[in-house]
């Protein structure tokens, strides 16, 4: 299996940010609407065995850095099998009636082994998830992301690829065989084909293409004018990452290569 330099301890962590960042107008609006009333309810959810690993009681993150830290903490709970299973209680289900205030949007693959809510140990209302095979973009995916960022004010978009991605493998196989995949799978393969790694063969080629595809999709999103403006204003970060099935670790994919250490900041 390919060794990923970023697949080390704290691969998703970021430098400690200010304890309390200024809350945006949208966050204040959320509070005014009562949507934050139940945000501390996660404290009652952790079973005794997981109390030590449970998330701190508090509101959901409202900044890119804080959102990334929470994803890292959640992935740590998942890896260590000390999930807190936050925001699943009866009270949380009732609170969901008043609206949604997810703190991160994960664009991931449809692969059944990589459900974002599980691998980041998040619950009801925590994540907006958009999934397509190979996390490829189309208008529906872009519109869904735009809704989360522009309408709900989500401060973090993570493009999440994963080890052993069948969609990427299919694209590579189609390229090598010259045969078109059946039906609409061809559309997926065509989106991935431009980033197929020409420098490797076999499983290594699939693996490096998985990373290249994450970087490519992240770059496409970052070039979207409305999203770019939010990034420039410091209200949004768009990051690339990979989930390794073996270690269950999520680690960042830097724009210019697989990061050996987390980027200083949130990848803007
Ligand atoms: Zn996949």
Explain the overall architecture.
- With 268 residues, the chain is of the alpha/beta class.
- The protein has a single domain (48-87, 99-253), classed as Carbonic anhydrase (Beta-carbonic Anhydrase, Chain A, 3-Layer(aba) Sandwich), CATH 3.40.1050.10.
- Helix content is 36%, strand content 12%.
- The chain has helices at residues 25-32, 64-79, 90-95, 116-119, 139-151, 166-177, 185-192, 202-222, 225-232, and strands at 104-108, 127-131, 156-162, 237-243, 250-254, 257-258.
- The site of zinc ion (ZN) has 7 residues, from helix 6.
- Zinc ion is lined by residues 109, 111, 134, 162, 165-167.
- Pfam families: Pro_CA.
- Residues 1-23 are annotated as: Disordered.
Question: How are the elements arranged and paired?
Answer:
Blueprint: H1 25-32, H2 64-79, H3 90-95, E1 104-108, H4 116-119, E2 127-131, H5 139-151, E3 156-162, H6 166-177, H7 185-192, H8 202-222, H9 225-232, E4 237-243, E5 250-254, E6 257-258
Parallel strand pairs: 1-2, 1-3, 3-4
Antiparallel strand pairs: 4-5, 5-6
Helix pairs in contact: 6-7
The protein binds zinc ion.
Brief synopsis:
By secondary structure, this protein is of the alpha/beta class.
Q: Kindly provide the name of the CATH class.
A: Alpha Beta
How many E strands? Answer: 6
- Indicate how many domains the architecture comprises: 1
Instruction: Give the overall shape, derived from the CA principal axes.
Output: globular
Q: What Rg, in angstroms, do the CA atoms define?
A: 18 Å
Q: In whole angstroms, how far apart are the ends?
A: 30 Å
Ions, cofactors and other ligands present here are: zinc ion
Give start-end ranges of low-pLDDT stretches.
Answer: 1-10, 13-57, 257-268
Q: Helix tally?
A: 9
- Under CATH, the homologous superfamily reads Carbonic anhydrase
Q: Report the CATH topology name.
A: Beta-carbonic Anhydrase, Chain A
Helix content bin: 25-40%
Order of helices and strands: HHHEHEHEHHHHEEE
């Amino acid at each position: 299996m390919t060794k990923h330099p970023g697949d080390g301890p704290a691969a998703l962590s970021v430098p400690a940010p200010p304890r309390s960042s200024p809350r945006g107008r949208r966050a204040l609006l959320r509070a005014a609407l009562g949507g934050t009333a139940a945000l501390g309810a996660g404290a009652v959810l952790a079973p005794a065995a997981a109390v030590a690993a449970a998330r701190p009681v508090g509101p959901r993150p409202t900044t890119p850095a804080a959102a990334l830290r929470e994803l890292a903490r959640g992935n740590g709970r998942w890896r260590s099998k000390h999930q807190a299973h936050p925001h699943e209680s009866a009270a949380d289900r009732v609170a969901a009636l008043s609206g949604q205030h997810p703190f991160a949007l994960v664009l991931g693959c449809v692969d059944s082994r990589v459900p974002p809510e599980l691998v980041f140990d998040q619950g009801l209302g925590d994540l907006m998830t958009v999934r397509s095979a190979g996390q490829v973009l189309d208008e529906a995916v872009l519109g869904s992301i735009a809704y989360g960022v522009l309408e709900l004010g989500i401060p973090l978009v993570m493009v999440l690829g994963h080890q052993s991605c069948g969609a990427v493998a299919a694209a590579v196989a189609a390229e090598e065989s010259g045969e078109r995949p059946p039906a609409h799978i061809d559309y997926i393969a065509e989106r991935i084909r431009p980033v197929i790694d020409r420098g490797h063969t076999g499983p290594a080629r699939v693996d490096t293409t998985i990373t290249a595809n994450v970087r490519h999709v992240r770059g496409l999103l970052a070039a979207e004018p409305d999203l770019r403006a939010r990034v420039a204003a410091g209200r949004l970060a768009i990051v690339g990452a990979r989930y390794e099935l073996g270690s269950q670790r999520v680690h960042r994919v830097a724009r210019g290569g697989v990061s050996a250490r987390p980027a200083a900041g949130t990848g803007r």
